[in-house]
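Q: Got a minute? One more chain.
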Amino acid sequence: MRMAEELAKRSTCARNQVGTVITNADLTQVLGIGYNGNARGLPNACDGPEPGRCGCLHSEQNALVKAGASLPGKVMFVTTSPCVMCAKLTINTNVARVYFRSAYRDPAGLEVLRQGDVETELYDRFRDRWR
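A: Always. Here it is, folded:
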């Protein structure tokens, strides 16, 4: 989770900086990382200020592209719980468990994950020990 929090700092999103780390099931290998921002080669800023229409790729999307879909049982650490579309991508790329630091404004993504048999857990352990 600490790595996801550090990745979130790279985001150029003006409204909500989010970071994601995807590992294998036993947490020994990082398979993909991501933070929210514009597509490669496009201006490094939001397209607009309106929530849900900033134009940023979500951190989960960026990490899932790198982690691939074939390895089952992956674990995702994300600073904010996934939206509905990121939850669906998470299910389709064989992530088995999602740890999140805080809940997204719309809790529907968590429900989609649960319907897809992905375990979810609010992860706030050790938060006060980190800077």
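A: The first strand starts at residue 19 and ends at 23.
Q: Perfect, thanks.
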